[in-house]
Amino acid sequence: MAYPSVCSGRDSLTGLDKIPRPFLIGVAGGTASGKSTVCGKIMEQLGQQSVLEHNRRVVIISQDSFYRDLSHEEHKKANKGGYNFDHPGAFDVELMYNTLVDVKAGKRVEIPKYDYVAHKRTSEGATVIHSADVVLFEGILVFYFPEIRDLFNLRLFVDTDPDTRLSRRVLRDIEERGRELDQILNQYMTLVKPAFEEFCLPTKKYADVIIPRGADNVVAIDLIVQHIQELMRPNRTNRRQRNNSDSIVGRPH
Ligand SMILES: Nc1ncnc2c1ncn2[C@@H]1O[C@H](COP(=O)(O)OP(=O)(O)O)[C@@H](O)[C@H]1O
Ligand SMILES: Nc1ccn([C@@H]2O[C@H](COP(=O)(O)O)[C@@H](O)[C@H]2O)c(=O)n1
User: Fold this and answer.
1) Do residues 252 and 245 make contact, with C-beta atoms less than 8 angstroms apart?
2) Which pLDDT score, from 0 to 100, does residue 14 have?
3) Could you tell me if the CB of 121 is within 6 A of ligand 2?
4) How far does the centroid of ligand 1 lie from the alpha carbon of residue 63, in Å?
5) What is the reported pTM?
6) What family does this belong to (predicted)?
7) Distance, CA 251 to ligand 2 centroid (Å)?
8) Secondary structure of the chain as H, E, C letters
């Protein structure tokens, strides 16, 4: 696939002289490992959970918003748990890449919400990004595509044991995604688990920080938040000019 050129290259975490805004964090991990929950905790600890959504300076995007549109046949398969949503080919990589490039360039971007019952993006409840300090991009395969992997300034991998993930997925898919138990287990055994082992797990090596036990790991989350705050501190040398009051650092939590 041909991608448009972008000023790429990852800012070294020790080379603190060039901290980009927004600071783009990739959060990978298996299904139901706690990626969204970890992102929520990071946002909360940065004091943003109580801020109205359109004023937030820390934004979470889900990779699921970039699933390809399904054909009629694929949609029928998906309704039976037989469509492979865990394969890299299920994603619109070009749209995902172009969107992240726009986010990094500070452009106003609208990210549609994904409807897991209808298996498609919805026009309602889109996340609007216009002047974020930190953008968290979470999903099972956010480190799979090299061009996308290279866009991240920090990479986290949420490492939760597979039994825990399966039991959480079963409960979540029944409660929130309108699924039946036999369909969930069949999809998991035939598609989700093999794809996790083939495509997701091998990307753990790209992480800067691996978070064992996901959101239960308060120490890891505290350290990550401290690191982000340190990087984003307004009086860092050579940082982009901005008003102190605009910063997420030092805001009341
Ligand atoms: N540490 C935890 N303890 C208990 N339940 C959790 C924990 N982390 C996540 N969950 C639950 O597990 C399910 C999957 O978590 P989620 O954060 O959505 O995972 P992911 O984004 O990786 O799919 C959700 O129902 C969530 O509430
Ligand atoms: N229509 C869909 C789309 C995705 N899935 C499954 O969701 C998982 C990814 O989301 P997580 O929050 O669990 O990371 C992935 O494993 C897909 O199997 C789905 O079932 N239906």
Assistant:
1) no
2) 38
3) no
4) 16
5) 0.89
6) Belongs to the uridine kinase family.
7) 35
8) CCCCCCCCCCCCCCCCCCCCCCEEEEEEECCCCCHHHHHHHHHHHCCCCCCCHHHCCEEEEEHHHHECCCCHHHHHHHHCCCCCCCCHHHECHHHHHHHHHHHHCCCCEEEEEEECCCCEEEEEEEEEECCCCEEEEECCCCCCCHHHHCCCCEEEEEECCHHHHHHHHHHHHHHCCCCCHHHHHHHHHHHHHHHHHHHHHHHHHHCCEEEECHHHCHHHHHHHHHHHHHHHCCCCCCCCCCCHHHCCCCCCC
Model pLDDT for residues 202-218, shown as the tens digit of each residue: 999 999 999 999 999 99
Instruction: Name the residue among 104, 30, 20, 90 with its Cα closest to residue 61.
Output: 104
Give the HSE-up count for residue 138: Cα atoms under 13 Å, Cβ half-sphere: 22
ipTM > 0.95 for the complex: yes
140 CB less than 6 Å from ligand 2?
yes
- Residue pair 139/62 in contact (Cβ under 8 Å)? The answer is yes
Are 86 and 31 within 8 A, CB to CB?
Answer: yes
User: With bands split at pLDDT 50, 70 and 90, how would you rate the model's confidence at 231?
Assistant: confident
d(CA 133, CA 242): 11
Q: What is the Å distance from ligand 2's center to 15 Cα?
A: 36
Q: With CA atoms as reference, report the closest residue to 138 among 195, 61, 33.
A: 61
- For ligand 1, is residue 29 a contact (CB within 6 Å)? yes
